[in-house]
Design a protein that fits this description.
- There is one protein chain.
- The chain has a four-stranded antiparallel beta sheet with strand order 2-3-1-4, with helices on one face.
- It is α+β, with helices and mostly antiparallel strands.
- The chain is built from two helices and four strands; from the N terminus they run E-H-E-E-H-E.
- The protein has helices at 16-32, 72-81; strands spanning 2-10, 36-52, 55-67, 85-91.
- It has one domain: Alpha-Beta Plaits.
């Protein structure tokens, strides 16, 4: 298991219940792929540096997790299929 950091941006059209549901779906998906979520840091609504799918704002969240490297491709695929996520980045932080 290695440490990873995941940042994802949700569509700004979501209300509070939709944000909670999307966040729960992300943590559930990570746990089902063998990940262990060690921290969640919601950053809230922020302006995007450039338009993504005609959105000028997004709802940011950072998740710290422990994950087996073999499940990275499945997690990347799951994020590409999730319609409420407009952008994501999964990195391994430098120790």
């Amino acid at each position: 298991m290695q440490d990873y950091e995941l940042m994802y941006v949700l569509t700004p059209e979501l209300d509070e219940a939709g944000i909670e549901e999307a966040s729960t779906r992300v943590t559930t998906m990570l746990a089902s792929r063998g990940g262990e979520v060690t921290g969640v840091e919601p950053w809230g609504r922020r302006r995007l540096a450039y338009p993504i799918e005609n959105y000028l704002e997004g709802i940011y969240s950072v998740v710290r997790l422990k994950l087996d490297p073999t499940s990275l491709t499945a997690i990347e695929r799951d994020f590409r299929l999730n319609e409420s996520v407009i952008r994501h980045l999964l990195i391994r932080p430098v120790a």
